[in-house]
Amino acid sequence: MYFITFSIHKRRRMLDLDQPKRVVLGVLNHLRDTMKVRCIGFVIMPDHLHALIMLSRAQELSRFLHTWKRMSSFYIRRWYAACAPHYFAGFGPGDRLWQKKSYVFHVDNERTLKTKLDYIHLNPVRAGLVERAVDWPWSSARWYILGRTVGVPIEWVE
């Protein structure tokens, strides 16, 4: 299991709008099916994301990250160009969407898993976007707290 973080290049707020967040989740759903990825939890913030992911084979991690970033970048940039080109007015589209590097932390016990999941879910609260984790619609917190669907099937592991 891996705790993954990757950010928008130059911390631009490219994930402020809902449709780019939907794209990120859509690509994750696609990869769940094609690469047998299990999602334990996630949060999408305006300029970065965190996810807890299980892969069937550890050697797939690099390909998974590359594919998630590449596909989501393509569809997000295409959506902005077609539907919200004015959004780039203040900072331009840039030459890339995601930063090259990702932060990856191997999660090897339940205590660390719970710590990372709490960190993920409290991210929007710490950022001042909501008062309670459950109020942020772009997180798995609603699945854990309310049992509601969150755009990606969540699979808790024991």
Provide an overview of this structure.
The chain has 158 residues and is α+β, with helices and mostly antiparallel strands. The chain has one domain: 2-Layer Sandwich (Alpha-Beta Plaits), CATH 3.30.70. It has four helices and four strands; from the N terminus they run βαββαβαα. The chain has a four-stranded antiparallel sheet, with helices on both faces. A hairpin with a 3-residue loop joins strand 2 and strand 3. Helix 1 packs antiparallel against helix 2. It is globular and about 45 Å long. The termini are close together.
Per DSSP, the total helix count is 4
Total strand count, please? 4
What CATH first level would be assigned?
A: Alpha Beta
Q: Return the CATH architecture.
A: 2-Layer Sandwich
Written as H for each helix and E for each strand, in order along the chain, the element string is EHEEHEHH
Query: For the CA atoms, what is the radius of gyration?
Result: 15 Å
Estimate nothing, just give the exact number of structural domains. Answer: 1
In short:
The protein has 158 residues and is an alpha+beta fold. 41% of the residues lie in helices and 15% in strands. Helix 1 (18-35) runs antiparallel to helix 2.
Question: Which structural traits does this protein have?
Answer:
158 residues; alpha+beta; Alpha-Beta Plaits; four-stranded antiparallel β-sheet; 4 helices; 15% strand
Topology:
Layout lengths: L1 E6 L10 H18 L2 E7 L3 E7 L6 H23 L19 E4 L3 H17 L14 H6 L12
Antiparallel strand pairs: 1-3, 1-4, 2-3
Helix pairs in contact: 1-2
